[in-house]
């Protein structure tokens, strides 16, 4: 990877050393009327790993993501992040703590350029205020912050190899390019754990390989990933630990080899014995 990867990875980062398992989900449940979407889900994600969350359609994977990240409030159970109970917090509060997600359908601002989309992502920006406009020192602080932010934006765009699209409107990007932009925006928030919801959906094989390469490099630099994906082969080839959901419950978890041999997994995916 280029020097840009260094800027996208360790530079300026201060990782909490609270626990080797930053994300813990215990007894998580959610009902929609008479339908139980998530039923007592319990699992952990180890720091610095790429963990896969798989299951047939309707297994409850995306709902679990929504519960973890505050998009939905669980009926029961807890979500703990770096030792803190974050159950029921607002999505922005969870993201501010370093637990950030992407979406199955990219949510870029289509009428803004790639660069403008990126500049909106980071937290803690000072922004424009009346008092800043009349105090020279305050104005310099804002300019310095914007300069530093712009440098980091370009580093991450280069890391994801989309710097040539900086002035392109996000609405004109292909599906794969939008996935790259969304992951770049997520990385710019300086997360500790990234939850990726179907990051390869609608992505051609070439871009899929690029995305995987970026994910593996970031994991090697200390980032932690929880990945929802329908493609079992992709999960088995790229994840060290795999969690399988079925009908809202955790069916099993383990190494790819262990999960492949599990008869309950075979039955859940294929509807019978093999």
TrEMBL record:
Record GO terms (molecular function): ATP binding; ATP hydrolysis activity
Region ranges (Disordered): 1-25
Name of this protein: Probable branched-chain amino acid transport ATP-binding protein LivG
Cited InterPro entries: AAA+_ATPase, ABC_AA/LPS_Transport, ABC_transporter-like_ATP-bd, ABC_transporter-like_CS, BCA_ABC_TP_C, P-loop_NTPase
Keyword Hydrolase among UniProt keywords: no
GO CC annotation: plasma membrane
Species: Haloplanus rallus
Any one Gene Ontology BP term: amino acid transport
């Amino acid at each position: 990877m280029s020097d840009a990867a260094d800027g996208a990875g360790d530079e300026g980062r201060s990782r909490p050393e609270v626990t080797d398992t930053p994300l813990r989900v215990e007894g998580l449940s959610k009902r929609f009327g008479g339908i139980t979407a998530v039923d007592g889900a319990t699992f952990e994600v180890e720091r610095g790993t790429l963990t896969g969350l798989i299951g047939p359609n309707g297994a409850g994977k995306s709902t679990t993501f929504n519960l973890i990240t505050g998009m939905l409030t669980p009926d029961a159970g807890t979500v703990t992040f770096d030792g803190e109970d974050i159950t029921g917090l607002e999505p922005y509060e969870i993201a501010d703590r370093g637990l950030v997600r992407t979406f199955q359908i990219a949510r870029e601002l289509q009428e803004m350029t790639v660069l403008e989309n990126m500049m909106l992502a980071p937290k803690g920006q000072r922004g424009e205020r009346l008092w800043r406009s009349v105090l020279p020192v305050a104005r310099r602080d804002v300019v310095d912050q914007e300069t530093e932010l712009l440098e980091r934006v370009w580093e991450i765009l280069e890391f994801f190899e989309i710097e040539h699209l900086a002035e392109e409107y996000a609405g004109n990007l292909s599906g794969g390019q939008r996935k790259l932009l969304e992951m770049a925006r997520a990385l710019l928030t300086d997360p500790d754990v990234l939850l990726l919801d179907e990051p390869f959906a609608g992505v051609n094989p070439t871009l899929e390989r690029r995305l995987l390469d970026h994910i593996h490099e970031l994991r090697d630099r200390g980032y932690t990933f929880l990945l929802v994906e329908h493609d079992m082969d992709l999960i088995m080839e790229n994840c060290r630990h795999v969690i399988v959901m079925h009908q809202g419950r955790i069916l099993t978890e383990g190494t790819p080899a262990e999960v492949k041999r599990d008869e309950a997994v075979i039955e859940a995916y294929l509807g019978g014995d093999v």
